[in-house]
Each structure stands twice: as C-alpha cells, then as structure tokens.
Design goal:
Its EC number is 2.8.3.-. The chain is an alpha/beta fold and 418 residues long. It is built from 19 helices and 15 strands. A hairpin with a 3-residue loop joins strand 12 (347-352) and strand 13.
Length: 418
C-alpha cells in the first residue's frame, strides 16, 4: 500500500477537530469540499468510494498517477480513502459497523438514494442517536424539484449568477470555477461545525440539509438585493464596480493592472499624484464618488486614456505610495509560481508513488500564526481500506480478502478478485 501521508512538522499545533471522525460518502465537488474543510481542521475524514471507479472526479481534469486527477486532488487532501460497494448488503453493513466510531456523515446522493440503500438519516440515527448527518442536494428536499439532479452550471443559470457575470451587452457568463459547488461545500462545513458545537452542549445530533440552489441564491449577494430594489436586473459592469468609480482593470502601456479607488481622498491623490491631473478632481462632476458614478461615462474614458500613457510599474509604485489598492493582473500559472504564493506556502509539492511528485493546495487557515498542514496527500483509490477497517473494526486479513473476492471492496496491496 502506498503511504500518502504528507510530512509536516505540526509542532504543538492544536487541531480544533482532533478526535472527530467524518464518514464522507459524497463525490464530485460540494460534499468532498465540505469533508476537506473538516479534515483540514483535524478531523479524521474517511472517504468511501466505489471499488472500481471511485469518485467521479478521479476521471476529471488532468491525470496524476493511476487514480488521481488535478480535479480530484483539489478537494480531497487530508483524507483517507476506503472502497465499499454500497449497492451490496455487505458494503452497507460495513457502514453500519463503522458508524459508532464516527461523529459526522456527509453525502450527496440523489433524492431518496440514501434511503433506498438503507443509509438515510432515520436509519443511521437509530444506530447512532447523536449523529450529525449532512446531505447535499440540488434543490429543496421537500419541494417539487427535490428529485432533480443538481449541477453547478445549471444552478448558476437558474439562480441568476450567470446574468450578473460578464460585460454589459454580452451573453450571460458562467464563473471560471464551480462557484456554487464551492460555496455549498463551505456553507455545509459551517453547518456541520455549528452542529458539532451544539452537540457538545446538548449531546444531540442533527440533520443538516443543503441545496445548491439555495446557496446559489446566497452568492448573488448585494447584486440580488439591488435587483429587488430596482425591480429588474441591475446592469453588468464586467471588471468594473457598479457603484465605485474608478474601480476595475485598466491597461497601462505595458500590461493590465487593477486600480480600486475607494474613497474621495484616494481619488484626490490619484488625480494629483498618480496621473498628474488635479483638474479632474477639481471638476465638481467628479468630486464625490456619487457624482463619479453618475458621470462614469465621461470620467472612465478619460481615466482609461491617461493610464495607457504610463508604464505599469510606475503606476503601481505611485498608487502604493498613495495607499490606493492596486495590483498586477497575473496569469494563473504566474500567480501560482509567484514569490507571494511561495512564501505563503499555499502550494506544496508532495511525493507521489506513481507520478513521482504532485502539487497540492495547502489549507488557507492559519491558527495561532501557523498554517494548518497537509497531513495526508489526496489519497489513491482505496489506499486506507485495509488499515482503516482493521483499526476500527478489527477485520482479519482473510475476511478482507474474501470481501475483495466478492467485489465488496478493493485492497491496493492485494490482487483483485476480478
């Protein structure tokens, strides 16, 4: 069996969820991200996957080794992987046997799918009354669309997110990443943490239901409330801001940069000390942000033309000296390989048993001045099946071999029964 543990000096770091165990029955994005957040905080997260194909995302993105991809690796660090055929009575029985050892179950089966397998909330609660059970679906589980599958792109369209993204006059545009899935995973993790806190006080478990559509609506944020106040869709501004001017991406003589002039004082400095045009700020049409927003159609072309006459580094130096938020627009690879990312330890290269090495994002959380470490690299398919089942259930090796021969599970260090 390959060892996917990452070598990290955690020192005296106290993990908030140390001692908590999570059974992650989910796949694709939102559910696995929820599990990854809990794992980052120190929970032992055991990911249950199909014995042959594993998580769907093991076949999405660019291949890393035999069973991982870049997509899969982005949301499965710090977990262990075991394989179980949940369509088999023996696989479900192993989940039942594991349940007393776990505090949280996360899944994103289709509506009614968990119940059909015998893994619904009531069935598991009967075996572990203080269980925290988090299920993630596409739509309201008690509504007329409960049975509809949830897909990020569909939800981005139906929630209005695509309608607020992109440039005015252009077609609706999806976000570059699966934003609804990502936010749903984060919201789900927050709900689990709240339920764990409540259980510490009361001893009671909880059923948590998360819907992608609900979270997609939440992501519309202030744009959504603008729409309600206006009674129509607000205008799209692309990289610009709907109410702060000048604010957005501009082209200098040698490349793009971001300039975010947030206050009237900053605008005064921008005109006098950055673009050297005090007459602009002295014009009453641009004296306040309310006026600048009202007169953006005359101000922005003038500012855009001025910025094109300066080298980017000159502008950035002047902007920084004035305390005006600014930055270069970097390519993705350029950002990931930047000194800022390196110094922050945000992307780490870990050994891999097949690929030799692979890049893994580090957790974004810092506690007591220390970034939470990568304790386990994203696991190869079923790498922890033998160790986890022997440690928690004391299953002897001959029984594990028999289960593998019947296709209930797979053991990476033993030949397949197929």
């Amino acid at each position: 069996m390959s060892d996917t543990r990452a070598s990290s000096d955690t020192g005296d770091l106290d993990f908030p969820l140390d001692g908590i165990r999570v059974l992650d029955l989910s796949r694709v994005f939102a559910g696995p991200l929820c599990g990854q957040v809990l794992a980052d905080f120190g929970a032992e997260v055991v990911k249950v996957e199909h014995p042959v194909r594993g998580d769907d995302t093991r076949d999405w993105g660019m291949r890393v080794g035999k069973t991982e991809t870049t997509y899969y690796n982005s949301m499965n660090r710090n977990k262990r992987s075991i394989t179980l055929d949940l369509q088999s009575p023996e696989g479900v029985q192993i989940v039942y046997d594991l349940l007393p050892h776990f505090d949280v179950v996360v899944h994103n089966f289709k509506s009614g799918g968990a119940e059909k397998l015998g893994l619904g909330y009531e069935a598991l609660k009967a075996r572990k009354p203080d269980l925290i059970y988090c299920c993630i679906g596409g739509y309201n589980s008690s509504g007329p669309e409960a049975a509809r599958p949830g897909y990020d792109l569909v939800i981005q369209a139906e929630s209005g997110l695509m309608a607020i993204n992109g440039e005015a006059g252009q077609p609706p545009l999806k976000f570059g990443v699966a934003a609804v899935d990502m936010m749903t995973g984060m919201y789900a993790a927050q709900a689990v943490l709240a339920a764990l806190f409540r259980r510490e006080r009361t001893g009671r478990g909880r059923l948590i239901e998360m819907a992608l559509y609900d979270c997609g609506i939440m992501v519309t944020s202030y744009y959504g409330l603008d729409a309600m106040l206006l009674g129509r869709d607000p205008q799209r501004y692309g990289n610009a801001h709907p109410s702060i001017v000048p604010y957005g991406m501009f082209e200098a003589a040698d490349g793009p940069l971001i300039i975010a002039v947030g206050t009237n004082t900053q605008f005064d400095k921008f005109c006098r000390q950055v673009v050297m045009r005090p007459d602009i700020v002295e014009d009453p049409r641009y004296a306040t942000n309310v006026e600048r927003a009202r007169n953006r159609l005359t101000l922005l072309p003038m500012v855009t033309d001025l910025i094109r006459t300066f080298e980017r580094d000159v502008l950035l130096e002047r902007l920084a000296a004035c305390g005006i938020p600014c930055g270069k627009v970097l390519g993705l690879h350029e950002a990931l390989t930047s000194e800022r990312t390196r110094q922050g330890g945000l992307l780490q290269e870990l050994p891999h048993p097949v690929a030799g090495s692979m890049h893994v994002y580090a957790p974004p959380y810092r506690l007591d001045g220390q970034r939470l470490p990568i304790r386990h690299a994203p696991p190869t398919l079923g790498e922890g099946t033998k160790e986890v089942l022997q440690r928690l259930l004391a299953l002897p090796e001959d029984e594990l071999r028999a289960l593998q021969a019947r296709g209930v599970l797979t053991l990476p260090d033993m030949p397949s029964g197929d």
